[in-house]
Amino acid sequence: MRSLVRFALFAVAALGLGVLLVVGRLFPGTAVGEFAAVLDASYAASALRLSVPIAFAALGGIFAERSGVINIGLEGLLIVSAFTGVAVAHWLTGDGPVAVGAGVILLLLLALLLVIAGAALGLLGDDRSEIAVRGGGGLLATAVLAGLTVVLAGPTLAATWLAFYAAVLVSTGFALLFAVVTIEYRADQVIAGLAVWLIALGAAPFASNVIWGAVNSPGVDTLGTWTTPVLSELPVVGSVLFDAEPIVYFLLLATPLSWYTLAHTSFGYWVRASGENPKALDTAGVDVRRVRYAAVLLSGVFSGIGGAGLSLGRVGSFVGSGSTMIDGRGWIGITAMLFGNYNPFGAFGASLLFASLDALQFRLQQLDYAVPDSLMQTVPYVTVILVLALVGRTRTPDAAGEHYEADED
Amino acid sequence: MSPDWLPKPIEGVIDRLVDASAGERLLVSVAALVTAILLGGVVTLVAGVFAACESPAVGVFCYNPLAVYRYLFLAPLSDPFILQETLKNSALLLLTGLAVAVSFRAGLFNIGTQGQLVLGALAAALVAVRVGPAAPAGPVGGVLIAVTAMLAGSIVGGLYAAIPGALKAYADANEVITTIMLNFIASDVAFFLVSAYFQKPGSGSVETRDVPAAARFGPEIALVLAVALVLATTYLLWGTAFGYDLRTAGIQPEAADYAGVDAKRMIVTSMTLSGAIGGLGGAVWVLMSVGRWVNGVPALGFDGITVSVLASNNPLGVLFAGPLFGSMQAGSLSIDFQLGVPRQLVGVIRGLVILLVAMPEFFRTLGVRWNMGEGQ
């Protein structure tokens, strides 16, 4: 029944847009025509771009919640990474040329962190020799990442990319904090998630104020766009899919990858089992805690990409006033996750739906319709509520929100 | 546990206070608060490394945490302006903390107190401006306007909270998300309404006309009102059958249904009650603090979450947590002015408090390790 409603909603939305487009093209002089003229290729491109933070939050939420940990702190993770990205980029580039020394320090720090993380992973395992292997793996990963970045992006852009990595790491660090609190100390997941959000909501403007003396940051370079030659010349599709920001490509890659991981790998199987029947997973000899840690950390990685993708991808600054530049996108991401029924493709579709509404309200503002901006801004939020009212609570994983204690402890 | 001659509701309250689990929760709250303050000090110290300053407090550290906390907690004693702000904040946080506590007690996460407060405040301001000219002059008229405005604020706040309540009860929509969305919608809608219809003539910012001066009151009256409401709510929740139903319906809907209580209707009722208190908070903010509705309502609703969580959602605990955060909030102005430490620091501490209160297990582990308590 719920899935029927969900499908019907998708169909109606898609059909409605299609009809609008066709009617609008046929009668260009009318109001509908004017409206349809707004929905062009650049509209599609901006909808896709706006879906980035929402969809990445949703993908992260899927991994965490399917493993049994409800992470409603996603909004906070987006805020933290959006801020960190800009702050580090600002620190690296300053006002003048790239600060090479700062870049090297940051790179060494990243390497060190990855080595420690790898070694820690090895420590958790039974085989102590894994420590060295994984620690070395972390070092190698950093070297490869740094090399690739400099080769692909050039030295100037490399600084912005380095800032992007740092943002993802900090977001993952926050996710780790959340994981320790909920998995180790069995905190109420909803309250702890709320706390992560509120900490970020206070910390990002605080830090921004410390560094720049204002809650909003000055501008920094963005990650730019990646243009595929020839293909980008294609009509409509070319400008949308082959002349986009790197993070958009990441999203187009991450969605099927997440789906494949969840559905067809043993890690995905563990994650699902950990959320549905942790006892059985434990009996099968898999450490439920480690699976949940990994899933929550993944939600931090994804949210980090989404948040830094927003601030460094297009905007090029951090806005900390009011509810910050994230402005509820993490919460909308949670709704997209529910609407998409914990399926990465479904969540991506739902994110695109919300983002296209957001893009629409931007467009209509520019068209100077009679509807005031402040009311247009409510459209995505109202949609979220309508969607939740119609779809309601989806079938959450059985063990979501519950703590798991292995018996032998 | 308590003598027989005490009236039943009071007996219940006393039982709760001496209850072992209540005592443990109090201990957790105090420990969490202290830890959050310590962590906040570390944050301040580290942040000071990145700040630019002429004369560092110590070495590379621009901010001195001890000075920060001295201002944060003691400024009300030395600065009459900060004291006044503390009293105002305390009254407001008693109300928003109570609003959040009522919903949490009923097993509902009403994160929407902020939105309910924003719209309640707008309703109160508009009603006060409208009723103003019709009311008789003098204090009688003032009381009349104030009461009508507060009623309007509660009604609007209550109705606005009834929306997520109904969505939760009848459509199973997660109230955490709907209430947060309604927060965003409330501020956009209020901005639109004021800028389009109720704009104060000649004003550069988005605000309503001033409410009649006679209807305004000081923090003392607001505090009395808030404390009375806290006590009344405590009685309602633990002294009446209605309160019992309210508490069970959200936490154990099956049990409530079995006992003949319409759990769904009870969910809507508790959300409405919570929203009405939040809306009243908005009305008090208008009548006591600013004298009109202004865009950029402070985050009193979010602070209410901290107050309630710190009080383990116990209205009587709100009586302590509210003024505590009220003074910290006021003190944050003084750390900004006097020490140049951004006032958002209090926001960080707010989050840390919630995080730490949420993990009693952490303190239990510590307690066992240090041989405190029973050490199961």
From TrEMBL, chain A:
Signal peptide region: none
Compartments, record wording: Cell membrane
TM segment ranges: 43-64, 76-93, 99-124, 131-153, 159-183, 190-215, 247-271, 291-310, 330-355
PANTHER family: GUANOSINE ABC TRANSPORTER PERMEASE PROTEIN NUPQ, SUGAR ABC TRANSPORTER INTEGRAL MEMBRANE PROTEIN-RELATED
Keyword Kinase: no
Keywords (A to Z) from UniProt: Cell membrane, Membrane, Transmembrane, Transmembrane helix
Topology with respect to the bilayer: Multi-pass membrane protein
A GO CC term attached to the entry: plasma membrane
Pfam hit, one: BPD_transp_2
Alphabetized CDD domains for the sequence: TM_PBP1_transp_TpRbsC_like
The organism's place on the tree of life at top rank: Archaea
Protein name stated in the entry: ABC transporter permease
InterPro entries listed in its UniProt record: ABC_transp_permease
Organism, scientific name: Halolamina litorea
From TrEMBL, chain B:
Membrane-spanning intervals of the chain: 26-51, 57-77, 89-108, 114-131, 143-164, 176-198, 219-238, 267-288, 300-325, 345-363
Keyword Chloroplast in annotation: no
Topology with respect to the bilayer: Multi-pass membrane protein
Annotated keywords: Cell membrane, Membrane, Transmembrane, Transmembrane helix
Gene Ontology cellular-component terms listed: plasma membrane
Chief location category: membrane
InterPro entries according to UniProt: ABC_transp_permease
Localisation per UniProt entry: Cell membrane
A Pfam family hit: BPD_transp_2
UniProt superkingdom: Archaea
Protein name: ABC transporter permease
Species, as recorded: Halolamina litorea
Organism classification: Archaea, Methanobacteriati, Methanobacteriota, Stenosarchaea group, Halobacteria
